[in-house]
Design goal:
Chain A contains four helices and 13 strands. By secondary structure, chain A is of the alpha+beta class. Chain A is globular, with a radius of gyration of 18 Å. The two termini of chain A are 35 Å apart. The chains are: A alpha+beta, B alpha+beta. Strand 13 of chain A pairs parallel with strand 1 of chain B, so a sheet runs across the interface.
Chain lengths: 140, 208
């Protein structure tokens, strides 16, 4: 069993395909990869929407084997952090600094959805049409 | 705190950067705020907005555009000596500026144009992005009771992103009042030297 986290999701999967891959690599089937990350293999490479990252020439085996995708290798290739627990039973596919910087420099406020104390979810974009003072605090 | 600036076109979205909801709950219930308060257990906002302390604020206009990038939310630095009056004045200056924006919208003199706003966006590094990823993984493991693994990750986060008080204080030991404000904290604050704990903001009338 492996749990794959993204910034907004947690997915529990049966053991990765094959089982013969090193523990510092996260191999997922194409369906799971698409469901969890939104990225999928196309003839152009590893794609989401209009964006495609070509598989490095001559190294296809390191990235794709049959229906299995080395998601952590693609994450590295894209400059995004892929981190794991010591036993490699929990992975987190994070977001990279470049994407964060581009998003903030566009001056479009990054959207998010978070719960209130009663568990009701609120998205920043729910409040479009109002001026929003977004302010943080903490108990600590 | 901001009641005097309420307006149907304006709202305060207050976010508690607390991994432990129960630690935040009494604060939220006591304040019984009539603004929206959300809880960010994984510090997602730190990652999205490159935040590193509380209070930090972002001003977002009706179209979802950032008109004041992330900055200290009206507090003066704790590493420097300010009298109570000056600290109160800083807070009031900030609140009045928010009020001016709430009332005057895009005509407020406190907004930055796109080019000025971009210059004020703090740059994220690969180390910071990695720290946020490890922090979120650590929080997941902590919730699963895997505290040793989580603590090891948090220690790595503090090394990767030493400027983040959010990461340090969230994961540091707390005192009986729930504050991560012991000797080690103050030692870290003192060691900032010329750097500030609360970075003074660029706002007309702001002391400090």
């Amino acid at each position: 069993m492996v749990t794959v986290l993204t910034e907004t999701s947690a997915t529990e999967l049966e053991a990765g395909p094959g089982g013969s891959h090193p523990s510092d690599e996260l191999w997922l089937g194409s369906t799971d990869t698409a469901a969890i990350t939104g990225w999928s293999m196309k003839p152009e490479g590893f794609c989401r929407g209009d964006i495609c990252v070509p598989t490095p020439p001559g190294k296809a085996d390191r990235f794709v084997q049959g229906d299995s995708i080395n998601v952590s290798a693609f994450w590295d290739l894209m400059g995004k952090p892929a981190v794991r627990s010591a036993d490699a039973d929990v992975w987190l596919l994070g977001e990279g600094a470049n994407l964060r910087n581009d998003a903030l420099l566009s001056l479009q406020a990054p959207d998010f959805t978070l719960p209130d104390l009663d568990g009701n979810l609120h998205a920043l974009s729910d409040y479009r049409g109002k001026r929003v003072l977004l302010i943080t605090w903490a108990s600590w | 705190m901001f009641e005097q600036v309420k307006d149907e076109d304006f709202m305060i979205l207050s976010v508690a950067m607390d991994a432990d909801i129960e630690a935040a709950r009494p604060w939220i219930e006591e304040a019984s705020p009539d603004y929206v308060t959300l809880i960010d257990q994984n510090h997602l906002l730190s990652s999205l907005y490159n935040m590193f302390n509380v209070p930090q604020a972002v001003w977002i206009d009706e179209t979802g555009t950032i008109v004041r990038p992330v900055e200290t939310g009206g507090s003066l630095d704790i590493a420097q000596e300010y009298d109570q009056e000056t600290r109160a004045q800083a807070k009031l200056t900030y609140i009045n500026a928010v009020g001016d924006w709430a009332v005057n919208g895009s005509a407020s003199k406190f907004l930055f144009g796109p080019e000025d706003a971009k210059k004020r966006v703090p740059a994220m590094t690969g180390e910071i992005a990695l720290a946020h990823a490890k922090f979120q993984l650590g929080q997941y493991l902590r919730r699963k009771g895997r505290t040793e693994e989580a603590d090891a990750l948090f220690a790595e986060c503090c090394e990767l992103h030493p400027e983040s008080w959010n990461i340090y204080r969230e994961t540091a030991e707390r005192n009986e009042r729930g504050l991560a404000a012991g000797d080690e904290f103050w030692e870290k604050v003192r060691s900032l030297g010329e750097k500030q704990y609360y970075i003074t903001i660029d706002m007309e009338g702001m002391p400090g």
